[in-house]
From TrEMBL:
GO molecular-function terms, A-Z: phenylacetyl-CoA 1,2-epoxidase activity
InterPro entries xref list: Aromatic_CoA_ox/epox, Ferritin-like, Ferritin-like_SF, PaaA, PaaA_PaaC
Lineage of source species: Bacteria, Pseudomonadati, Pseudomonadota, Gammaproteobacteria, Salinisphaerales
BP GO annotations: phenylacetate catabolic process
One annotated Gene Ontology cellular component of this protein: cytosol
Pfam family name, one: PaaA_PaaC
Superkingdom of the organism of origin: Bacteria
Protein name: Phenylacetic acid degradation protein
Gene3D superfamilies listed in its UniProt record: 1.20.1260.10
Organism per entry: Salinisphaera shabanensis E1L3A
Length: 329
C-alpha cells in the first residue's frame, strides 16, 4: 500500500519506485496509519518539517499568552479573572508539551528558543495583533482558539506519535478556551449598546487575522503537498479555513453580530459560505516582522528568557550536584 508519489520538499515529487527501501518502508507505515516514534528511522526532511511545525506551534502557544496575559489584571470580575488566568496557564502547558515533542526529534529547548529570538523560527501571525478592549478576550477565545481547534483536531491523527498524543490533551483544553471566549461575547452582546459595539469592533478587527491563521491559500502553500503525503498535515489550509467560516458564521448570527465581509454569502451549490480572502500582502508583512506588535511580542519573550537565566543556571547547577551525589552514593 505505497503512496503513488512522495514529495521530498527539496527535490520535488518522486514516484514510489524511486524510493530507497528505507523510504518505501517508511511511507508504507505512514500509509498504514502506523505512528512514527522518535527512535524510528525517518527521512531527514520529515524530521526537519516536524521540527519546524511543532516548534512554530510551541512558540505560538508561548507568545500567545502575551495578548491575553495583558488583560488578567483588568478582567471585569473575579470569576472572569480566574477563568482567563487558567486559560493563559493552559497555553504555557501546551507550549511545554510541544517543546518536549520537538525535543524527541533531536533539537534542544535552547536551540528552539534561540531560533525564535533570532527570528529564524516563526510563531502564529495572529499574535502580532493588539488586544485593545475586554471584548478582545471574547474574540480571541471564540475566533483564535476556534481556528486553533479546527486546525488541531485533525492533528490528533498526525503521523508522528508524540505530536499526535500532545494534541489530544491540547484539543480538550482548547475547547474550554473557545467556550470561555464565546461566553464573554454572549455577555457583551446582551449588555449595553456600547458593550455590544465593543463586541462587534473586536469581531471586525479579529476576523481576517483569524482567517490568516490557516496559512496562505493552497496555491501558495510551500509545504502542504509534502506534509500531506507524510500525514504531518491532515488537511489543506483552504479546506480548514472553509470549515472554520462555515462553523463560525452561524455563531456570529446567534450573537447578533455581523461578519465584516460584504461578499459573505451561503452557496447552495457548494454547501459552503463564499467569503472574501484576507489581505495576503498584510499577512506577508506580518510574517516578515512588520505587524502591529511583532517587535513588542519578541521583545517581551527575549526579556523573559534573559531574566530567567539565573533560574535556569540554578536548576542546572542543582541537577549537576544531585547527579554527583548519586554517583558518590
Ligand atoms: N503564521 O507552506 P505553508 C495557537 C508560514 S494557534 C505564521 O502553508 P505549513 C494558540 C509557514 O510556516 C497557532 N507563519 O506552511 C491559539 C511557512 O513558512 P516557513 C498555532 C505562517 O507549515 C490560542 C509559510 O508560511 N498552531 O497555538 O504547511 C491561544 C508557508 O506556509 C502562518 C499551529 O501552529 C501563520 N498563520 O502550514 C494560544 C498548528 N501560516 O516555515 C495559542 C500547526 C503559514 O517555511 N501548524 N505560515 O518559513 C500548522 O498546521 C501549519 O504549520 C500551518 C502552516 C497551517 C500554520
Amino acid at each position: 500500500m505505497y503512496a503513488q508519489n512522495v514529495s521530498t520538499g527539496t527535490q520535488g515529487v518522486r514516484d514510489a519506485d524511486e524510493l530507497s527501501p528505507e523510504e518505501a518502508a517508511f511511507q508504507a507505515r505512514i500509509d498504514g496509519n502506523i505512528k512514527i516514534e522518535p527512535k524510528d528511522w525517518m527521512p531527514a526532511a520529515y524530521r526537519k518539517t516536524l521540527i519546524r511545525q511543532i516548534g512554530q506551534h510551541a512558540h505560538s502557544e508561548i507568545v500567545g499568552q502575551l495578548p491575553e496575559g495583558n488583560w488578567v489584571t483588568r478582567a471585569p470580575t473575579l470569576e472572569r479573572k480566574a477563568i482567563l488566568l487558567a486559560k493563559v496557564q493552559d497555553e504555557a502547558g501546551h507550549g511545554l508539551y510541544l517543546y518536549c515533542a520537538a525535543e524527541t526529534l533531536g533539537i534542544s529547548r535552547d536551540e528552539l528558543m534561540n531560533k525564535l529570538h533570532s527570528g529564524e523560527m516563526k510563531y502564529s501571525s495572529i499574535f502580532n495583533y493588539p488586544t485593545l478592549t475586554w471584548a478582545d478576550m471574547g474574540a480571541v477565545g471564540w475566533l483564535v482558539d476556534g481556528a486553533a481547534i479546527m486546525n488541531q483536531v485533525p492533528l490528533q491523527r498526525t503521523s508522528f506519535g508524540p505530536y499526535a498524543r500532545a494534541m489530544v490533551r491540547i484539543c480538550k483544553e482548547e475547547s474550554f478556551h473557545q467556550r470561555q471566549g464565546y461566553s464573554i461575547m454572549m455577555s457583551m452582546v446582551s449588555g449595553t449598546p456600547a458593550q455590544k459595539e465593543m463586541a462587534q469592533d473586536a469581531l471586525n478587527r479579529f476576523w481576517y487575522p483569524a482567517l490568516m491563521m490557516f496559512g496562505p491559500s493552497d496555491k501558495d502553500s510551500v509545504h502542504s503537498d509534502q506534509s500531506m503525503a507524510w500525514k504531518i498535515k491532515m488537511n489543506t489550509n483552504d479546506e480548514l479555513r472553509q470549515r472554520f467560516v462555515n462553523e463560525t458564521v452561524p455563531q456570529a448570527h446567534y450573537l447578533g453580530l455581523t461578519i465584516p465581509d460584504d461578499d459573505l454569502v451561503w452557496n447552495e451549490e457548494t454547501g459552503n459560505y463564499d467569503f472574501s480572502q484576507p489581505d495576503w500582502e498584510e499577512f506577508k508583512a506580518v510574517l516578515k516582522g512588520n505587524g502591529p506588535c511583532n517587535r513588542e511580542r519578541l521583545g517581551a519573550r527575549i526579556k523573559a528568557w534573559e531574566g530567567g537565566e539565573w533560574f535556569r543556571d540554578g536548576l542546572a547547577a542543582y541537577a549537576e550536584k544531585a547527579a554527583k551525589r548519586r554517583v558518590a552514593a
